[in-house]
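Final report, results section. Input specification for complex C-07:
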Amino acid sequence: MSLKFKILACILCSFSFGFEAHAYKYVIITDQADPKKSEEVIELFKNTYPFNTFSVEFEILKVDGNKLDCDSHYGIESKIGCKNGSEIQSMAQERGADQVMVVKELSKYGGSSAVGGGYPVITTSSDARVMIHEYLHTLGLCDEYKFKPSEAKLNCGTSRNTPNLAYIKPEDYYSSDSDARRKHMWDIPWFSSISRKTLITNSNQRVLGTDPTDPNSLAAINTARFPMAINGQANQIGLYRAGVCDNATPPVPTWKPEGIATVMSDISAGLGAHAEKTVDKILLSKGIKKKLDNEVPRNPEVVVQSQSQTHAEVGSVSRDIVNADPDQTVNNSSRGFFKSFFAWVGDLIRQIGNAMTR
Amino acid sequence: MIKGLHFFLILSVVICNSKTSLGQDLKKDLGICGKTMSTLMKFNQAGEPVLESAMVIEANEEFCDGGRYEEHANYKIYLYDQNNTLVYDKLIFLNPLLVIEKLDDKKKGKFKSVKMIPHATSRIVKFPITKMMNSITSYKIQSIETKQSTQIKKIDWLKK
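Structure output:
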C-alpha cells in the first residue's frame, strides 16, 4: 500500500509541477527609434515589487509615429492622449498581448502622460516611473495628490470609492475608535488591512482619521522580491486625510491608506505597503502566475519587433522572457485541470495555515 | 489511506462537474483550459460596450483562465455557442476614465495638472475555448454596476 501511495503521489506531483501555461504578456508599443524609454520601463517593472514576483513576458513593438495618434488632444496643448486606441490594441492583440503600454516619442516640457481605461501612455520625455503610476490607474487606483479648484470641480463629482481612495463624510463626534470602525468599516475599501492596533481616529478617539505622519516623506522604492516591511507608525496602514478634493466646492473629504506620499502622488516615491498589497492581489486575480523562487531569467535580452515583420517572423523571434517556460507542445485540459486543482489545494492549505497562526 | 485518497479525487471531480453552488465556486478557482480566444472589447461611454473583434491564437501553450474573476470587476461578459447556449462568462475590470496628467517637472516627481474624462476605450480580454464549448458565435456584456446588459450580438471573427 505504501508503494502504491508513493507512485500515486509522484504522478500527482508531476501533474502539479510539470505544467505551466500561458505567461502573461505586456506589449510596449513605441515610435521611439531607439526604444530606450521602453527598455527603461521594462527594467523598472522587473525591479519593482510586486511586479518582479510575477511570471510575465515583455515585448517592445516599434511602429511609425503616425501609428500612435497620441499628440496633444482634448483641447489642451501638452496633454497627451491617444485617439486611435482600438488600432493600438489591435496591433498588440496580434502579438498575443494581454496588456498594452504606449511610449510616445515627444519632447514636451516636463513630459505628459495619460491612461486610457485599458492601457497606460507616457511620453519619452517622462521618467519611466510615470508608467508605474499610469499602470496603477489602469488597475483602478486613484491619484492621491490635491486637485486644483478647476480640476476638483471636474474630477470630484463622482465620489466613488477605489482601492486607495475613500470618500467619507466624517461625523462630528465618535464615542471611541470602535465606534468609528463600526460606522465606517464598509466605507473603507482597505479596512481589512488596518491593524487592530492602528486607530482610525485621532489620539483622543473622537475625530475621524489616523494621526498624520510626515506628509513630505516618501514611500521607499522597493526593489526586493518581498513586500515592504511596516515600520511602526511611519508607514502603517490606516485612514489618513488625502485632501484630493479639498478644493472642490463644497470640499469633499477623501481618505487614503497611507500617511506618506506614494507613487500615486509623487513619482519619486515607491508604491507603499498598501498599493503593493493591492496590486499583488489584482495581478493574481488577472490570472498572472507567481515566479518560482529559484527562477532565473533564461533569455535576458530585450527583443524589439518592428511592425513590418510578418507573423511568421514574429513567431520565430525570441522574446524578453522574465520567466522562460519550458516548451509545451503537448497539452490537454485534464493536465490543466490537475495543475489548477493542486494550485487550489495549495492555496487552501496556505489559507488554513494562515488562519491557524493568526 | 489510499482508498481515502481515491475517494477524495473522485469526490473533487464530481463536485467540479456539478452545477451546484459549491461546484461553481470550485470552477471559479480552477479555471478552464483551452485554446486562446483573444478579443478586443470596446467600451463606449455613450453607447453600448461592444466586442470589436476576436481571434484564436494558436500557441504551444494552453490558456488556463486563472483570471476569470478580476478584482473590482465592473463588467461581465457572456459567450454563447451556435445553439445560443451560454458556454462561458468572465468578470473584468476596466477603468472607465481617461486620466490625462502633466508633470510639474521632468526631474521632480510632482504632478502639475490632471483631467479625468469619461471616454470610450478598449482592452484585450482573453478567453479559453474548449471542445465542450462548441463554436462560439455570440456574446453579451453586462455592467455590474447598473445590471444593464447589451443584446446578444454576433462575434466578428478575425483570421490571423
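The beta strands of chain A are 24-30, 56-62, 99-104, 112-115, 120-123, 166-167, 240-241, 254-256, 304-306, 320-321. Chain A touches chain B through 84 residues (CB under 8 Å). This concludes the modelling results for the funded period.
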